Amino acid sequence: MxxxxxxxxxxGAGREKGIxxxxxxxxxxxxxxxxxxxxxxxxxDLPRERFAEWEELxxxxxxxxxxxxxCVAVKADVANESDVSAMVERxxxxxxxxxxxxNNAGGGTGAGPVDRTPVVDxxxxxxxxxxxxxxxxxxxxxxxxxxxxxxxxxGGRIVNTVSVSAHLGMPGGSAYAASKFALLSxxxxxxxELAPHNITVNAFSPGMTMTQYVRQRFEAVAQSQxxxxxxxxxxxxxxxxxxxxxxxPDEMASVAAFLASDxxxxxxxxxxxxxxxxxxx
Length: 281
Prior knowledge:
Blueprint: E1 7-11, H1 19-29, E2 33-38, H2 54-66, E3 71-75, H3 81-95, E4 100-103, H4 124-152, E5 156-161, H5 174-194, E6 199-206, H6 212-224, H7 230-238, H8 249-260, E7 271-274
Parallel strand pairs: 1-2, 1-4, 2-3, 4-5, 5-6, 6-7
Helix pairs in contact: 1-2, 1-8, 3-4, 4-5, 6-7
């Protein structure tokens, strides 16, 4: 119960077996009340992206409540400032404070985690969407949530979900990798700005994690290579991981909970690599 009676916001929390859901449930088990946030609508201009539905987000909220904690589900596009402002206001109305912000929402298209496009062929709209999903969303959530933390005078914890892609070259994934790399710098800068208010800002970089989103990526890989199954594509990718397997969402959630707790009180501006050893090669 390291987080007893603290209030947390977790974005990108609407998909079953996703990292966001796992973080929300882990924080609740540690004693936090949680606001779970997701966009909850599909976009015709992004046919390969699948976003959480409102019913899915409500289901996550129900799981949090089943652990004996309060929870509110909030529909918001976190790359839209009006939505973010309203989301934070709703959380304050519901719980009276914000102690923890987990910026887990993200994604990409064109040169993102699902699609692969060389820079010379990449559409500007796909680049801009990917930066909005990964970087602008984090900037906006930090901007509005940090204001509440500062006004409350109790300090706070901000935890950003980055990606192993930020630490490696990613042919065909330029927009995703670049936006996640920029998030490393934003984490450091925010850490310096918010340190006087006892607000720490840290991040963690997941490696290959067995979520629905990752399975969607490997389904696309299998479809592009006739005769290859999804399981074969996953097994090939796992051979590049020293620990020999993909991570589970709960393994990412445990790191997020550490960074959200007082156990990490003397850490700020840091990014933990949680990648099964991929970047140690």
